[in-house]
Design brief:
Helices cover 53% and strands 9% of the residues. Helix 6 packs across helix 9, helix 17 packs antiparallel against helix 20 and helix 18 runs antiparallel to helix 19.
């Protein structure tokens, strides 16, 4: 409907010789007065030297001459209020019923995108801090694909830095790794993921107080990055063991990656790339390290240089991120690269993006964008921790919400289905994250997130289960003549408006990379449906036209819920 209104209002602008670039139509912020509104008259007043109310009146008169599905009215001091009639709402219902995409258009000239999200370090367990990157990145990947973009999701593992040298140094003290250096790589590693999870924090802490151990780790890192045989073989086993565990955790979150690349994947690009930067005169030495100046004339605050190579010869994140960009451009040539990481990395990506443009790694039109997010906090407002005060591992967080959902879904002596409990728990987790503005911190409250009567993932899943139960009771009676439907009540009109708003939210979310727009609109649709459900006896309604209209509304609501939950990466359940 809003697309049709924009099309017809544009014609009115053209007929009145008003500049069409000033045309603007939005959903009404006063639904008690009208369904849609335009404040274009205020934009036009100065250029046309007319009162906004007179401009609005001329647009209303022209609009009402040519449109049969709505009525426009000029309202002081210059708003154009547009109210859709029952003929218009009925046509909207028919159109949505026939549309497999529920009114969501594919983008024109959809770009090719690589989305960088996840970013866990090998040999370290996923923790609550990895959740937002995975959940937000996955939803944006799915949304971009749904809108017609060609998208690749890359986990971008941390598998090539100093942490690998620390882990190998720590492993060497606990296990006999001599076979790796004698050309007898074991068929199965001696160490497990639990060993790695213990060794890394121990080695990291020790390196801060033991200079000899830190030096050893630095030397191992350098040898690894130069692919020295024994160290490289140990590293391969560490990566394999760690990735298997990481995949299992992400699978529980319904998060998938197309590329399981890491910093190591671009290792062969790093040295030639840095040599090229030096040949172009873009690098300089500083205390034995190699750096690149990325300041700009209009900078109003200090901008640190990019560190390309340490004095020890080892590479840092700047180098591997730039090499990753180079590799992506050569292998995939994307139009855009999106990075979803926490806000603390904003400076890092500003430096990397400047260096990528300064060195010509990307085309002038290639978009490089960092979309930061806030932290997950406990009820005390501090970063979310375990009861013991340690960092909450992601697998423990998933177990926590699964157990809470299981208790909630249990019916007396009957235990809840464990897979359904996991889906409900994870839905609460993911929707609780996505409904918050990406840029802000939020409070993790599992009791609140699991409520069935609030703005929660549980509420959305319950609404979907409720609709499916209607269809189960109706059986074959769900077949209707869509041409015979007619919208006549505010309850019906409200659901259709919420469907329009949800379809519009897909594009708003894509433009601003803020999934909370979709989450808000999805809740509003579910809420409107539940009000309608509580007032209308769908199954027992004797009036055929009314019943058909209501069944059509149920079908579209079900489709929009399923479609949107899938875009958000939330799995549905058959019963609750």
């Amino acid at each position: 409907m809003i697309k049709q209104i924009r099309t017809d209002l544009r014609k009115c602008f053209e007929h009145l010789d008003y500049p069409v670039e000033e045309m603007f139509v939005s959903f009404s912020d006063r639904p008690d007065l009208c369904h849609y509104q335009s404040n274009s008259s205020f934009r036009l007043a100065k250029a046309l030297r007319k009162k906004p109310l007179d401009i609005a009146a001329s647009l209303a008169e022209e609009f009402n001459k040519v449109v049969d599905y709505a009525t426009a009215e000029a309202v002081a001091p210059g708003f154009l209020n547009i109210s859709v009639n029952d003929f218009g709402f009925t046509q909207t219902l028919k159109d949505l019923h026939k549309d497999p995409r529920c009114g969501v258009d594919i983008l024109e000239n959809a770009p090719k995108i690589i989305i960088d999200y996840g970013g866990p370090n090998v040999a370290k367990p996923l923790h609550v801090g990895h959740m937002r990157s995975a959940v937000i990145g996955e939803s944006m990947k799915r949304l971009a694909r749904f809108l017609g973009c060609e998208v690749l999701g890359d986990i971008h593992l941390g598998d090539w830095g100093l942490q690998m040298g620390l882990v190998i140094a720590g492993l060497a003290e606990k296990y006999d790794l001599s076979d790796y250096f004698e050309g007898n790589k074991p068929e199965k590693p001696q160490f497990t993921v639990d060993d790695l999870n213990l060794i890394y924090p121990e080695a990291s802490a020790r390196s801060k107080v033991d200079a000899d151990f830190e030096e050893l780790a630095q030397q191992i890192t350098y040898k690894l990055q130069n692919k020295e045989k024994g160290y490289f073989d140990i590293w391969e086993d560490i990566v394999a063991v760690s990735i298997a565990d990481i995949k299992a955790d992400y699978e529980k979150l319904n998060v998938e990656f197309d590329l399981w690349y890491g910093e190591s994947t671009c290792r062969d690009y790093v040295n030639p790339m840095i040599d090229n930067f030096t040949a172009l005169g873009l690098t300089e030495e500083s205390d034995g390290a190699l750096i690149m100046d990325v300041t700009m004339p209009d900078d109003d605050k200090p901008m640190p240089p990019v560190m390309l190579r340490k004095s020890s010869g080892a590479h840092l994140y700047h180098s591997t991120d730039l090499a990753t960009i180079k590799q992506r451009m050569e292998e995939y040539n994307p139009d855009e690269m999106w990075y979803f990481t926490d806000a603390r990395q904003a400076l890092h990506f500003e430096q990397v993006f400047r260096a990528a443009r300064k060195t010509g790694l990307v085309k002038e039109k290639t978009k490089l964008a960092h979309y930061p997010f806030g932290t997950v906090n406990g009820k005390d407002g501090k970063p979310f921790k375990t009861r013991e005060g340690g960092t909450m591992q992601l697998k423990d967080l998933i177990s926590l919400v699964t157990e809470a959902a299981e208790k909630l879904l249990s019916d007396g002596a009957k235990s809840a289905d464990k897979d359904a409990a996991r889906k409900v728990g994870v839905a609460a987790l993911k929707y609780g994250d996505l409904m918050c503005n990406r840029t802000r911190n939020y409070i993790f409250d599992i009791d609140k997130f699991l409520q069935f009567d609030g703005k929660t993932g549980s509420y959305l899943l319950y609404t979907l289960v409720r609709i499916r139960s209607i269809f189960a009771k109706l059986g074959d009676s769900t077949d209707i003549d869509i041409e015979g439907v007619k919208v006549t009540s505010d309850l019906e009109r409200n659901i259709l408006l919420k469907m329009e708003m949800l379809a519009n939210a897909y594009h708003q979310t894509y433009e601003e990379k803020l999934p909370n727009y979709i989450c808000d609109a999805l809740f509003e649709l579910a809420n409107s449906f539940n009000v309608f459900y509580g007032s209308c006896r769908i199954i027992d309604e004797p009036d055929v036209q009314k019943r058909s209209t209501w069944i059509a509304l149920c079908k579209i609501t079900e489709k929009m819920l399923e479609q949107t939950l899938d875009v958000l990466g939330i799995e549905t359940v058959s019963a609750m």
